[in-house]
Write a structure and sequence with these properties.
The structure is a homodimer of 316-residue chains. Chain A is α/β, with parallel strands linked by helices. The first copy, chain A, has helices spanning 4-11, 15-22, 30-43, 49-56, 72-87, 101-112, 128-131, 158-171, 188-201, 216-226, 241-253, 271-275, 285-298, and strands at residues 61-66, 91-96, 118-121, 140-142, 152-156, 177-180, 209-210, 235-237, 263-267, 279-282, 303-306, 309-311. Strand 2 of chain A pairs antiparallel with strand 2 (91-96) of chain B. Chain A binds a DNA duplex (16 and 16 nucleotides) through helix 2 and helix 4.
DNA sequence: CTGAAAGCGCTAACAC
DNA sequence: GTGTTAGCGCTTTCAG
């Protein structure tokens, strides 16, 4: 509707002066400032953000790449990011990929089109070689550790945490331990889980690992397999509390007792795990999200490690 | 970096021609089209979105007002909205209010600044009189029914659903029924719950209703009160499955059996409810979100009712 | 303290 | 088919 020229004309000043009062510049006489403000109020005028963004070359919008938006773990990181975005007056755009590498690249190119000031990657499909070129257009922050110096990281030291979790299970007397992972071997956290497992127990038997677990249902299905192996595992390390809950549910349904018949350890300290009293490794994802946001707006390439903690409940 | 002029100059054509190939206009000779495309590829050029948005007067960005971003119910709606946004090539900006009315108004004014093409309100703090003026700047869609003709609605018929839920409990022989709600009496769904309750059971006794329940912990605390009343309720209708899970957890912890000692009915068919086999009223929030998005981009002011369904499990 | 004017990067009449 | 040009709405030198 009304633009800055209309305001200027009506107030009998130049657009420059209007711009000055809009941006609280000094060197505007109180008289004109009031005159302009009156017209602004009268017209209920608000400056056009696109024009400002165009000229400033920034939008105060940051994008968050997540694979699924209905996954508790990513929601936690998003939660942390949103916390900080409000504090710093940024807007956040949610960019769900369903692990589609092409879509991920499209999202990254929103840096180049100047639509986004920065992007935070909570989980990725492309390799870093494909991602880093986009840092030329704006900061890219990862919630996973990477050596690439162009990428700032607010990361979880998953390897250490996995090793500790497996040792914990071992200490409790478990030798036959199974685990679930979110993705196949192309994912770093899956590989880390494997490596940590090997360090503690040696190479995992093929039927002790179940891939592609995201939801409770996936956990349920995993348990259907794991708990019917002849040499069935005495403990299961799930890659999330929802998955653990599914395992729990199935175990109970076939009359097993937890932890007597099978011990269960989850991840991320989600409400459902609390409800079922499942012990869990809390990677403090909210904090990871908050830190990621800070790195993003600072255009920092630091590598910040987020501490984890094990929460003991009654499932192991 | 490079802009459309650079491309034009390098390709030996006018900016118009470049713009034409960018937007797949016809009436560009194959020869020039190729020449331009080559330069575009060579420079890895992408048009600036702010410039385009400025001139077009739209951003293909829609905002979603939610109170909390870590609440399963709102996540479900957001999920539906994101589904459709990808399909239609829109971006979605998450706008968490924590029920701060002032912040909500600020978000609404993003329509006026032309930052957003539309906004979807999943839950509001302001009254409609304060909200409707913003429809002058762009479509506002509500996930709650309202008579205001300026507002499109993709709504749940909560009143009917609540009545049915309470009748169901009554049929099962329950006379002393308690319930939880998310907010105090200023919220429409709270009022609807009250009215529905009255229709079925008459005026609720004050200690049979617990306000401000959002999370499992809130449910736990609600149960701590409800299950220690002398005339304790024989059934509880929770305002979400997470809340129901908290109630479940506390009931179990004091040795009660569900549904024998207390029946439990949840809402929204969330994973946690499935895990605990809690019967639930599924308001199909994902679908509500999808429909809301469709209304938003169609600039429709239709009032669409989303059907609900009761899922029978073993908690009642 | 104030304003004219030159852009930011792009689209779309309009003319040729 | 193609190019010239006038904006979109704002910020920011640069002169007064």
């Amino acid at each position: 509707m009304a633009n800055i020229h209309d305001i200027a004309k009506k107030a009998g000043v130049s657009v420059t002066t209007v711009s000055r009062v809009l941006n609280n510049h000094k060197y505007v006489s109180e008289e004109k400032r009031i005159a302009v403000q009156n017209v602004i109020d009268e017209f209920n005028y608000t400056p056009n953000r696109n024009a400002i963004d165009l000229i400033r070359g920034e939008t105060r919008q940051i994008g968050v790449i997540i694979p699924y938006n209905n996954n508790q773990a990513f929601d936690q990181m998003l939660h942390g990011i949103l916390n900080k975005s409000i504090e710093h007056e940024y807007s956040v755009i949610v960019l769900p990929t369903t692990y589609d590498a092409k879509k991920e690249l499209e999202y990254l190119s929103m840096l180049q089109t100047k639509m986004l000031d920065a992007v935070i990657i909570t989980s990725r499909s492309n390799n870093w070689e494909a991602i880093t070129p986009f840092t030329k257009y704006g900061p890219i922050i990862s919630c996973e550790y990477t050596d690439f110096s162009e990428i700032g990281c607010s990361y979880i030291d998953r390897y250490t945490s996995y090793v500790e979790a497996f040792y914990l299970l071992k200490e409790r007397g478990h030798e036959r331990v199974a685990f679930t992972t979110a993705r196949e071997m192309e994912s770093k956290s899956t590989i880390q889980t494997f490596t940590a497992y090997e360090e503690v127990f040696g190479k995992p038997s093929g039927d002790y690992v179940i891939f592609n677990c995201y939801s409770m249902q996936d956990g349920y299905r995993a348990a259907q397999k794991l708990l019917h192996i002849k040499e069935k595992p005495t403990a299961i390390y799930a890659n999330g509390d929802e998955v653990a809950a599914g395992i729990y549910q199935y175990a109970i349904s076939i009359g097993m007792h937890i932890p007597r018949d099978v011990a269960l350890l989850g991840q991320e300290n989600q409400p459902i795990g609390e409800a079922l009293a499942i012990s869990t490794v809390d990677h403090q994802l909210i904090q990871a999200g908050e830190q990621a946001f800070e790195l993003a707006i600072k255009k920092s390439k630091d590598k910040i490690k987020i501490p984890y903690q094990i929460i003991h409940r009654s499932s192991i």
